[in-house]
């Protein structure tokens, strides 16, 4: 049996560190409070929750979901499912108000929206289950439902599921919900869902075969897209096509802006970056680049 979720983390905008153009995130809450003996707490998770940087917004953006993959020093992967939404705040300082808005800002404080991320960290790759669980926690929080958030998180982090064997696991977070997990027949089989089919739809058969050959011949493969979830799915699909071979080089489906220098690494890799950095990545000479939005 394996623990379904190792950590639940709430990451928010850090209003105390706003000296640079890009804001920073900070961990607001985490459960459990102490690190687990068998699983280290993911360091630097704040960077990966907002890969494009922490920015305040003038409008409330729609919630987004994507999965970040972190690899520890023991080469064990940790799947960090992130659900990000925006909460209204009042900007009393006026430091982020443009010159044209200064006069009105003196009369009425400007309303801004700050990003906040709910994160589930697990050694199991069940993106759809984690999307449903985080969506339920988000709904209870936003709609102020008569359900204890502490109970939801405790039930989630205390749930154990078979690592493999093809069996089904039915559980509830305690909000009248029912979550069903279908375990793989073997723990070495990749969990792909619809990611492989989507990759062929986005790039075509010939381009996918070219990427497959590039990975097998130890080339650098870089995806870029305006969708973080699309990046995660594409990297998962390309790696799964190698089965039963194992990819032993850097595998970073979503690379934060602060770590773009990793792209200059001399080793092969499979990496995904947001399309806002397309001008930076096109300067790379020894990297095979795939546009998932083209």
Structure overview:
With 294 residues, the protein is of the alpha/beta class. The protein has two domains: 2-92 and 112-182, Beta-Lactamase, CATH 3.30.450.200; 194-291, 3-Layer(aba) Sandwich (Rossmann fold), CATH 3.40.50.11500. It is 25% helix and 28% strand. The protein contains eight helices and 13 strands. The protein has helices at residues 45-49, 102-107, 127-142, 149-157, 195-203, 205-216, 228-240, 278-281, and strands at residues 2-3, 7-14, 24-31, 64-71, 77-91, 110-122, 160-161, 168-171, 179-182, 220-225, 251-252, 270-274, 287-291. A five-stranded antiparallel β-sheet has the order 3-2-6-5-4. A four-stranded parallel β-sheet has the order 11-12-10-13, with helices on one face. Strands 1-7 form a two-stranded antiparallel sheet. Strand 8 and strand 9 form a beta hairpin. Helix 3 (127-142) runs antiparallel to helix 4 (149-157), helix 5 crosses helix 6 and helix 5 packs across helix 7 (228-240). The longest helix has 16 residues, at 127-142. Residues 94-107 have low confidence and may be disordered. GO terms for molecular function: guanyl-nucleotide exchange factor activity.
Q: Name the CATH architecture of the largest domain.
A: 2-Layer Sandwich
- List the secondary-structure elements in sequence, H or E: EEEHEEHEHHEEEHHEHEEHE
What number of structural domains do the residues give? Answer: 2
| CATH H level, superfamily name of the largest domain | Longin module
Sketch the major β-sheet.
5 strands, antiparallel
Instruction: State the shape.
Output: globular
- Number of helix segments? 8
Which blocks of ≥5 consecutive residues have pLDDT under 50? Answer: 94-107
- In spatial order, strands of the major sheet run 3-2-6-5-4
């Amino acid at each position: 049996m394996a623990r379904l979720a190792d950590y639940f983390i709430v990451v928010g905008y850090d209003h105390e560190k706003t000296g640079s153009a890009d804001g920073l995130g900070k961990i607001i809450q985490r459960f459990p409070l102490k690190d687990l003996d068998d699983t280290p707490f993911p360091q630097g998770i704040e960077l990966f929750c907002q890969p494009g940087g922490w920015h305040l917004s003038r409008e409330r953006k729609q919630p987004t979901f994507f999965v970040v993959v972190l690899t520890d020093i023991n080469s064990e992967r940790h799947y960090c499912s992130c659900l990000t939404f925006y909460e209204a705040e009042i900007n009393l300082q006026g430091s982020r108000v443009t010159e044209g808005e200064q006069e009105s800002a003196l009369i009425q404080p400007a309303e801004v929206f700050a990003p906040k991320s709910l994160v589930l960290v697990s050694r199991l790759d069940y993106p759809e289950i984690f999307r449903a669980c985080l969506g339920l926690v988000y709904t209870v929080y936003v709609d102020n439902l008569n359900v204890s958030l502490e109970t939801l998180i405790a039930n989630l982090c205390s749930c154990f599921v078979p690592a493999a064997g093809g069996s089904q696991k039915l559980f509830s977070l305690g909000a009248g919900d029912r979550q069903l997990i279908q375990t793989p027949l073997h723990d070495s089989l990749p969990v792909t869902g619809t990611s492989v089919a989507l990759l062929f739809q986005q790039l075509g058969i010939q381009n996918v075969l070219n990427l497959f050959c590039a990975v097998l011949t130890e080339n650098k493969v870089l995806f870029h897209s305006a969708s973080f979830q699309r990046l995660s799915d594409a990297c998962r699909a390309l790696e799964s096509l190698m089965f039963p071979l194992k990819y032993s080089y850097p595998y970073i489906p979503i690379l934060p802006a602060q770590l773009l220098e990793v792209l200059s690494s001399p080793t092969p890799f499979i990496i995904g970056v947001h399309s806002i950095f397309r001008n930076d990545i096109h300067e790379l000479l020894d990297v095979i680049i795939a546009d998932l939005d083209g």
